[in-house]
Protein: N-acetyl-gamma-glutamyl-phosphate reductase
Amino acid sequence: MTHGTQVRAAIVGSTGYGGVELIRLLAAHPYVTVTSVVSSSNAGTLYSEGFPHLYEIVTDTLDEVDPQLLKSKADVVFLATPHGVSTKLVPSMLEAGLKVIDLSGDFRLKEADVYSQWYKKDAPEQGYLDRAVFGMSELFADEVKGADFVSNPGCFPTATTLGLYPAVKAGWIDPDTIIIDSKTGVSGGGRGLSMANHYSEVNENFKAYKVGVHQHTPEIEMVLSRAAGRPVTTTFTTHLVPMTRGIMSTMYATLTDKSRTSADFNELYRQFYEGRRFVRVRPTGTYPATKEVYGSNYCDIGMNVDARTGRITIISVIDNLVKGAAGQAIQNLNLMMGWDETLGLLFTPVYP
Amino acid sequence: MTHGTQVRAAIVGSTGYGGVELIRLLAAHPYVTVTSVVSSSNAGTLYSEGFPHLYEIVTDTLDEVDPQLLKSKADVVFLATPHGVSTKLVPSMLEAGLKVIDLSGDFRLKEADVYSQWYKKDAPEQGYLDRAVFGMSELFADEVKGADFVSNPGCFPTATTLGLYPAVKAGWIDPDTIIIDSKTGVSGGGRGLSMANHYSEVNENFKAYKVGVHQHTPEIEMVLSRAAGRPVTTTFTTHLVPMTRGIMSTMYATLTDKSRTSADFNELYRQFYEGRRFVRVRPTGTYPATKEVYGSNYCDIGMNVDARTGRITIISVIDNLVKGAAGQAIQNLNLMMGWDETLGLLFTPVYP
Amino acid sequence: MTHGTQVRAAIVGSTGYGGVELIRLLAAHPYVTVTSVVSSSNAGTLYSEGFPHLYEIVTDTLDEVDPQLLKSKADVVFLATPHGVSTKLVPSMLEAGLKVIDLSGDFRLKEADVYSQWYKKDAPEQGYLDRAVFGMSELFADEVKGADFVSNPGCFPTATTLGLYPAVKAGWIDPDTIIIDSKTGVSGGGRGLSMANHYSEVNENFKAYKVGVHQHTPEIEMVLSRAAGRPVTTTFTTHLVPMTRGIMSTMYATLTDKSRTSADFNELYRQFYEGRRFVRVRPTGTYPATKEVYGSNYCDIGMNVDARTGRITIISVIDNLVKGAAGQAIQNLNLMMGWDETLGLLFTPVYP
Amino acid sequence: MTHGTQVRAAIVGSTGYGGVELIRLLAAHPYVTVTSVVSSSNAGTLYSEGFPHLYEIVTDTLDEVDPQLLKSKADVVFLATPHGVSTKLVPSMLEAGLKVIDLSGDFRLKEADVYSQWYKKDAPEQGYLDRAVFGMSELFADEVKGADFVSNPGCFPTATTLGLYPAVKAGWIDPDTIIIDSKTGVSGGGRGLSMANHYSEVNENFKAYKVGVHQHTPEIEMVLSRAAGRPVTTTFTTHLVPMTRGIMSTMYATLTDKSRTSADFNELYRQFYEGRRFVRVRPTGTYPATKEVYGSNYCDIGMNVDARTGRITIISVIDNLVKGAAGQAIQNLNLMMGWDETLGLLFTPVYP
Structure:
């Protein structure tokens, strides 16, 4: 594809927060045009009626979920659909010859029984699980390049594994001691109504949820096991922060060599992420806050070795809707198409 | 100036919120390069140390406030300085041959005594007051075009007068009945520390401030008087909302012809703002919320005529740091340079 | 009733925010014991399962809505039920010999057609409308004393009419010029799920709602008409603030005698509310913020006369769940029983 | 002291958040009267001028810091002063015969060099360190009873050690594996102005701070070492949540006997805290949120054993200004005086 040709993109599940963010980000992409916004409900209505921030910006009406229709209007489909829905939609989309980037959790895990155990749903067919490339852009870019079906990582796994991978891969921390304490803004819970997202219940409140049972646990362990070269089990706890956007993972592990310093780790991470513009390894002694990546595709990482305890604390932040969803999906599209991975994604964080 | 040539911009007061927002927005401008970030304190230190969201994005060190230095590095200077400071800096900047866009309140009012009365400071020299073009982009674009010194409007006056001007100009509301109830996010108070901006004092709190004495009152009256063709006095009250960004002005006035409807006003406003992309007149019966313009240069307006009372309620929202400060300043630069006023400013609002 | 005897109270609609607040406040009342928590759904389940903040404090299970059961367990019933539900429940409750305090809007308006027009529901029978005493405690205490059926005022009307009544009654402002700009925290919207209360839609957002059609409009006008001695029509606009609790009404009116000052009005209000402990008239030149009454039964009022425009700005704040609902309901119970109206209600505001 | 006699209390540092909260809570205490509010600055001014939520409630003017004056007006002194200030004030207060409850960190640690190392200040004299009873009410009540000088615990150590003590004491977790991930509302940072508490910097932001160097670390280790009967070292990380009140500590440790279940631990904790009304051990499978103890003196605890990893996750929440400061201080006063420890403290949490 030459630069003169626009790639046409359809967004299925366009009325969820992931879909809305894809629309915002793709509006600034030089080579992509959104040609269809799709919703299983509300087809035929004006998109901007439900999203007045896009008044006079998006003038489309919502399309139905119809692979042939999509094929006629688009080259690539983003599935920003709930878990379980992608399982049903992907085969017909691929069969229709569309490139597919799935933002749900359906195709991330490669073992059907692990999926069923954590997601409490029937897994997709194994053939599709095998075919889906797991799109953690900074770790597995080579596999994403040229793929036609990418499973976009979860928000927590993105922040977490980008923060842990270099240390595990290098053998500098003991994978059996990893503890992950994650915190997310409320938009991670989506646009569906629930008491858990009701303003007066969340505001001025901090709570843990899905303790010990979060479905992102096996996804994190899958990536860390790959880094370690052997199965890794972790303790992973998620918390809800009274804010809209942002994820922080605070991660703890025991050093394999207690003489290593914060500066050593900082240098290790800088080398590992050399040339990867969206990972910013912060100077030793400083730590990122979620607001510092707000609205952007950055993942910022800081770390501290505590000589008293022989442990490291690693802090990693992302915007859950960008690097944790829509942004990384576009980054994966860039890789799939052979473009510069930063194309259309160099948004400066919105601060304050 | 051809498109191949970059305009070089300096930002004085770059460590305040207005300055920080200029950096974010100008990073996306195709014809402008920020060549100097200036601060009266901290000169010589790395800019991103104080603003880690710009780590690896802005690598400059802070420059001193020195007109000759600025002249050597820049073509245009944005003054995002506190009231009273611009008064002192502008003459030397203009003398050095720099184009100047001043975001402070110093040069907005054209009568020195009115300035002194409301700002409690000595006014600039009358010659400079006369020379400064008041840059309410959608209302006075013709005057801004080709100017070399523009005084950028205040945040409240922008939201307010864009919401009232068409109705006053048309004579459809009685200017003597106008009441303006405005609400702003906390970033409008700037980055300077004060109990009024202390988190625990502001969070989960709503309060009025500067009741009857806000310095934006005469600026609003200046614009409305121009619309009415005679002096207009208004009641203007400001409130602080526990959020970072956003301004809403809710405005009330008595109709001059009680038979006019919401739809009539809606049509009047649509015609008035025809072709002005940053003003979005919302469909009759709907009203804008501040989040719907978050991070963008839009001013959205809705209105309702209440036949019971013969009054109209007009609601106007902006992002105080964009349309209310940095965004309109860049829009004015675009006009000054003869470019399309939307250049570099078509950011989609960040939602949610 | 002697002090040794406890009044037994039932709370119908105990799982809404009004009901939950009644439980919190009544726990500190020296003469009242909550003997039944009632819910149309969930009867039989442990109350604290849905409200873990009351774990080990409230150990009751939810009762069904059954007048005979309530009569056997309680002397007084608080109806914290949605509009339309109270209409159906009140007759049987009164018939069973229970004292009733209704927190819904069903019995506030005395004209059935006005109710139907604004609430879009069938009005209660006129006999019950006539029988219900409108319990604006500070204004109509004499009528509440000894009543057995009190209709508790709405949250906006409470803040608003307490702020306007003395000036209208005294004839110091022109009732035809009154404009009311109100702002409320999100808990005012209740515990029912809706997009309007969804965290990510509300947080960092400020919006107007029900512009020109809010059902509290006729209630406010009813009280102001009583003060003026003739029909009064007002412009009333409501806004949603990203916080949980708190209401502010900012009110504007034209003076009938332009020579009166802020201090004159302050003195008028102090005399009017002499001895009414829950209304705090703030010193001239200061204005209350919502947080300053958080969790308490106070209504704080400040005012400013603007000689430039001949208008007054009056600011009145309450905690919508206390003075605007549960607190005033208990204050009315105190009055009904002939007790000191402050009994059990002298909570110090929670600050910060 | 008989119940008929009121204890007179002075509050030094009454204009900080700890002092303000003492005033709110003591207003409801049946046996205590606040007779002096003290501030090193502003002496002579009306207290409520700075704290309008107390208008007409507190009518005192601020006293100077003068031990003899305090002795003449009070029986007990609460020191809600910054670290370093209490060191200087305590000796003269004790010498004057006043009972002292110190809310600062100055007298918590018993080893002067450890204090100096973590607080970067000179430690108090060893004699006073020895004399101060460490007032973790639920753990060391026997020592507090009858004491005349109590050092009130820190906010993080309160939430944390109440959550860990029973398990460490029982030998059910390995003390060397303990990791503590704590989160606090912004009021924990006090009322002093700093960029770290500036609204626009904190709102919609989540950040870690004092990573590896928080001064509460040795206090936590002191208590856990006492539980373990040997020195314990921990990893402790603190985070700032965009909310005003509330602390959660999420704590991780490896089981010593992997066959123990969540229910086993739940039962252990229930037995340990039997009769201690302010600790609420939540039912197995549920976890407390900070809002569920808002404004109250409760510490709520939940826990989950993860059989996959052989670790336990313990979650403990408090209101940092109540159980983490003013509330526990009053609880300690109750113990010192030989009263029921719950006196004046049975506030129901404010929810929502």
